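INFO batch 0412 | record 1 of 1 | parsing
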Amino acid sequence: MKKIVAVIAATALLLTSGTSGVFAAAKVSSINQKGDEIRSSEKIYKPTTKKYDEYIQADTLVIKHSGSLSKKTLTKYKGKVMKAGGNLGYSVVKFKTASAAKQAYTELSKSNSVTSISPSVKYKTSSVKTDPKISQQYYNKLLNLPVAQKKAGKNKVLVAVIDTGIDKNHPELKNKIVSSYNVHNPVNASLPEDHGTHVAGIIAAEKNNGIGGYGINPNASVLSIDVFNREWGAYDYNIAEGVLYAIKKKAKVINLSLGGPFSSPVLEAAIKKAKAAGIVIVAAAGNEGSDMKGYPAAYEGVISVGAVNKSKTLTSWSSYGVSTDLVAPGDNVYAPIYDYEKKSTFASFSGTSMAAPMVTGTVSLLLSKYPKLKPEQVEYILKKTATDLSTKGYDKKYGYGLINPSSALSFDIKKIPSLTTAVWNKDTIMKSAKTVGSSYTVKKTFMKPLEQHWIKHTVKKGETYQINLMGSKVFDSQLLVNMYGKDKSSTKKIDDVTEGKTEGYYFKAPYDGTLTVGVKDISGNYDVAGSKLSEYELVFKKVTVSKDESGKENPIIIPKLSYDTTGKKMHLVGENGDDDYFQFTTGEKEENIKLSVNGTPGADVSMFVYALTDIRDEEELEEKEEITEGEGMSKEADGDIEDGNSEEEPTHVNILEQEINSGTIGESEQDVFTAEPKTTYTIKISNKYEGYSESFFDFFILSEGFESSATKITGAIRQNGDPYIFKASLVKMPADEDGIHSIYDRDEEYDEEEEYVGDDEEYWEEEGDDEVIEMLNEMAIPYKLTSEKSGYLQSRYDEDWYKVNVTSAGIHAFDLGTAKHSYSIYQVVESEGEDGNEIRLLEAVADNYDPFTGKKLNTFYASLEAGKTYYMKIEMDWMSDSYSTDKYFFESRLVGKPADKYENNDSMKKVKTLPGTTVKGDYAKLSDTDLFRYTAKASGNYALTVDNNKPSTPGLPALVKGDVYSYIAVMEDKNNNKNVDDADLDTIKYIDSYYDPAGAYGSHYFQKGKAYFIAIMGDGEYLPFSLTQYTFKLSQVNHKDEDAGTVIKKNKPSKPISFKKSKGKWEKTGRFNAFNTKKNDEDWYKLKVDKAFSGQITLSGGRELDGAFEVYQNGKKIAGSDRYAGNDTEVLNISLKKGTYYIKLKDAQGSASLSPYTIRVQEKK
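INFO prediction complete | emitting tokens
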């Protein structure tokens, strides 16, 4: 993964769930149109850097400067100073457009007074939102909270929650919020939101008040700092200001349940200031489901928290890796929220946003007992007492383990070792550094937290050194380079790669002085009991770099292949980077040529292949110009003129054929290209960033980032003083397995000499894929499921196709070994052409790329139907644009079979009669749509519900039984022809519950004797199919009103409903009837109490119920409850004297019951 320096646009990681409901749609072309808006089964998602643009506030720059900013530049590009200077020394400047900001960035970065400049960035809340499901806090038992809370001290601890606003009126928090601050609008209080309220509730919700659950530390005080202002994201400078406000208010702990993928200098500066003030900082690791670092969690001194579920297993969406310190429960966490309609209520959310406050609450418990603990000591105790969930001590997945509040509060603080808390400045560094010669190698480990190791060496101006740091296999080591002269100094931090890789830095002394080199673990990790987990190797050596070996005008001629620069001491070093050029001419035949260049620490090397092309061939020139312009390499197309006088028009130019740059810093590059006969090729080896993009993310992040002359030692280009090794060799490949070069050359015809004689334009004038399907049927290699196959791609343009005839439906896993190629599976679908005729198309149904991260998978899954023919294509890795000469391999295995006995009923012409009011099925087919036809036996409103359940078959991979978000489509069979046609589609209505994996529910009016189509569909969270099973129910909701005819006078019903009583419990089931023109249905119950008692009243029901009730005696309301949201049991603790009471029930939203509710009065035992 490419390590990204400089600045980030950080935003909220909150995935919002939708609202259940029924809605009508305009005319649609198919039943699946609703699902097509959410996912496309035709193509697999290919991520690009554009997905990060949302994190960049492209028209705003955050600038640290020592003097005044250039008024000329600000005026020229219409820049407005939004915030000037401040405690952190950063100014925020907003420009009229992103383009103006980019140009101003370039000009301002040249100023000596500017020490840091970056686009402003956004952060998101780090939660994954789910609909309410549970009403208990499983983590109380999991973390042994009751025991831990008994061990807490009596000191008050102020916790700053920098987040969305908090509901200060919530009964769980109204006694906890000591202050509320809105960074966007300081004169106003924070604006209450669900996320911030939920986070605060996890930390400090009231205990023993008879409402909801309780927080990790119910005695903590909360400082609400709103940095979102009900907007989608929070900008770095606003979060930084929130941190400064927390410092000002003397908070002891800061919780940051927000984050983004990039770093921000202004936020990092604020974090450092908070740590220096003795504040413990806890942050959510992120919800990327990968080891990608998230900020601010990855900053030094921040306790980064991943999420586990109630089984103490890392969730599929939790970030992990070297920057994650601990894990805590973060899945389906029940806590207070703020709802715009219901106001103060409760819900279950998921995310590392929920895990972080578990740790924050634990920190506050610890500080309530030991208020003088420093942040480093708190972090040491938490890591030392965490419960191992995998490898003893530390592992990449769980960090140091599951937070253990009880053990943390039992820890003997006298056993805290002496921690390295020294301020590392020139004096302390020079004092601790070991003097070394011009060549020095050492292996060391860190033996205590926050330790740093330093060496020093006297240097003369112009001397060059290469510094390599081979980091720990499990921890992330950082290289520190400081230069001290007579009256000046400069610094550099190198942290380009992660664990197990080598940092590198090429240093050229800018003046005489002392060079110091330091090593630290970025998270303060160290060895426990001689584990040597933190062991690193530092290599420091003086190097001599040869003069530039070649140039565009004088390339190095390769006399023959194979070619190898080993021993030739080739370097890529220069003030602004370096390019080296190699040239050779091919022979009489087409050849595959493999190019490789080794990786050198600290440098990002790439290769470019240019072909000397005769521009008199106008047709070829037009094609090549598109490539040239697209790569932004037009300058290269102007050089190397041949076969013509320099004063005349050129006849040949170098055209960019291929760029090889799939690796990142320190990684090697290699690829194979197909060379045409009798052609001169030039290979450019470069360490320069040559890309271009309109995206500010690409412009800023993919380059080094900016460092001014006040802090930089050498230029921004990543370099290495060690020689690189470039190799070029011929590759001989076996004969092609299937004789198919590429289906994109479908109409190509070849004579006996393999000369192309076909006409490309003929194919593209045709509609459909009939010709290629016929070719595949004839030429594709037969493949039998569960067998093994292997082969080679003869060139980067070659494709190998296999034909799969399926006899039994099922979900199959395709195991690829270590995948170096792209694998795709296609099916044939029929569609209607422009002239109304039926045509056949190839449609992709699966491939070996993760749809979220874009990473190659070594195993992928496909749902295959019986009786169908599928085609598997193997081609070069198109995601990284790299071709491998290695053998490919695959074998398949059956992992699960559908349990739906009503298949095949997935098309408009294959509709099954609804066999009853309850139907069971699954989503095992690709983009599964189950179609039924129902003839209404009576007129009225009908409830339609889908309830999802995981399959019980043991051993199924998690991916193939993933969550499904269901919806139901209903349409009338207008012409009663038993086929879904356009007239029927005009009547379509959808019933859904977005992002609720439990299922969908709603209602529809059916008319007696009329026929209706009912389609049950689902969108898989990860794959377009799932073995998750569903139960569909259809039932009439026109139920008899239980208290029909009752008259309410002074809150006393004339015909109340009676309870069924048994052994201290009164209970009854009922339904809220459909809305009528007068009012929503209310049910009144009579409760006769023979003796005083204390107990509980509960109202529960189906997922559609948002229940509420009120208790009356003698016409006066004495109690009630409308505190909990939909699908959450309404609960009220109550004490009743002897007497007669009336209880009024209703749905808070006025909804009718699709399933019965239960009202229960339970005497406490």
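INFO post-check: The mean pLDDT is 84.
INFO record closed
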